[in-house]
Write a structure and sequence with these properties.
mainly alpha
Amino acid sequence: MKISTPIFKAAAALAMASACGTAHAAVTCEQLAEIAFVTERLRDNGTPLADVMGEADRLEASKKFTGAEIAGIREAIDNSFKRIRTSNETLLDCRAKLKK
């Protein structure tokens, strides 16, 4: 099952911002939470983790995100898919890391 990139609205918005002149767009906590939320829905609809991670592969291939940003996206996907962290927990954890 192929997932279209527009499913990841947050990532698509980042790619568009990047195309509009900036070298790269920083991933916000809200966008990571949205990616986690969409991942939960995809999981619940039977999409395999490998297919969801394929979206992260495509984002990485676009070269519009730093390695740390891609790592954060992959972590959000993995934690959400495996029910380690909810999308809200992803948001709160990200915000807590920013305060440090």
